[in-house]
């Protein structure tokens, strides 16, 4: 069964720093990986989706990469801002599976 | 606007009183699923549906029922709620299980069972 690990569990950085969030998974048969952001008590907002034919995706200050062979994805946030403070979740999935396993997330706090 | 709509957003109920949380999507998605989120345990899947009339258990199905009679709706039913079902619930949908277009989530339902 798929296991998804996100490291670190929590991270506190000063504003302006570049940072990397890590996601590792055990099932290398996954096709796609989606990164989400969640503010406290709120829903999940999709940030980036890396599809099977891609190795990375970029949106503004965010860049996500996917290495299926090693079972890893990283989310890079450039020039962090206090508004980036949230929990970041990764979701690797693929094939025709319906059972989805999330990582427990990385709680990011960016200090002004 | 393409979205997944959950109702209600907040619900406080008493032990044993049957309740239904509704989930509706307007994107013609085949796949829909339910999750609960608890501190320290993360998001855990309750049930999912690959298409109309097709449902399967996720990781924590005990105490819950679902039905998928039409494509757009996927209600979550708690026949006899208990305090351990107090949680934040999310519904999600996609074009297909394992679909390459990603998953869209609702805004959540905060359920408290007293």
Number of beta strands of chain B: 11
Q: Largest interface, per-chain counts?
A: A-B, 28 and 31 residues
Number of strands of chain A: 10
- Beta-strand content of chain A: over 45%
SSE string of chain B, helix = H, strand = E?
EEEEEEEEEEE
Alpha-beta classification of chain B: mainly beta
pLDDT average of chain B, as an integer?
Answer: 94
Overall 3D geometry of chain B?
A: globular
* Biggest beta sheet attributes of chain B: 7 strands, mixed
pLDDT < 50 runs, ≥5 residues of chain A: none
Radius of gyration of chain B: 13 Å
User: So how many helices of chain A?
Assistant: 0
Share of helix among residues of chain A?
Answer: under 10%
Anisotropy-based shape of chain A: globular
Mean pLDDT of chain A: 92
| First-last Cα distance of chain B | 36 Å
Question: Overview of this structure, please?
Answer:
The complex is a heterodimer of chains A (112) and B (114). In chain A, the strands form 2 sheets. In chain A, strands 1-3-8-7-6 form a 5-stranded antiparallel beta sheet, with no helix packed on it. In chain A, strands 2-10-9-4-5 form a 5-stranded mixed beta sheet, with no helix packed on it. Chain A has 112 residues and is mostly beta strands. Chain A has no helices and 10 strands. Chain A is 0% helix and 54% strand. In chain A, a hairpin with a 2-residue loop joins strand 6 (56-59) and strand 7. Chain A has strands at residues 4-7, 10-14, 19-25, 32-38, 44-50, 56-59, 62-67, 72-77, 86-93, 106-111. Chain B is mostly beta strands and 114 residues long. Chain B has strands spanning 4-7, 10-13, 19-25, 31-38, 42-51, 54-57, 65-66, 76-78, 87-94, 104-105, 109-113. In chain B, the strands form 2 sheets. In chain B, strands 2, 4, 5, 6, 9, 10 and 11 form a 7-stranded mixed beta sheet that branches. Chain B starts with a strand and ends with a strand. The chains are: A mainly beta (112), B mainly beta (114).
């Amino acid at each position: 069964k798929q296991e998804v690990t996100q490291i670190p569990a929590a991270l506190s950085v000063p504003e302006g720093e570049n940072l990397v969030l890590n996601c590792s998974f055990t099932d290398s048969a996954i096709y796609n990986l989606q990164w989400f952001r969640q503010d406290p008590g709120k829903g999940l907002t999709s940030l980036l989706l890396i599809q099977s034919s891609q190795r990375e995706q970029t949106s503004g200050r965010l860049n996500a990469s996917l290495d299926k062979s090693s079972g890893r994805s990283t989310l890079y946030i450039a020039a962090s801002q206090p508004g980036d403070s949230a929990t970041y979740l990764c979701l690797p999935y693929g094939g025709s599976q319906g059972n989805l396993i999330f990582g427990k997330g990385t709680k990011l706090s960016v200090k002004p | 606007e393409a979205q997944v709509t959950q109702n209600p957003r907040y619900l406080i109920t008493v032990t044993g009183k049957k309740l239904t949380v509704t989930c509706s999507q307007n994107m013609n998605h085949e796949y829909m699923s339910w999750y609960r989120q608890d501190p320290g345990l993360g998001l855990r899947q309750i049930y999912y549906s690959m298409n109309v009339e097709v449902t399967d258990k996720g990781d924590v199905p005990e105490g819950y029922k679902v039905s998928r009679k039409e494509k757009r709706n996927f209600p979550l039913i708690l026949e006899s709620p208990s305090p351990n079902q107090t949680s934040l619930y999310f519904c999600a949908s996609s074009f297909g299980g394992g679909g390459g277009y990603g998953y869209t989530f609702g805004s959540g339902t905060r359920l408290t069972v007293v």
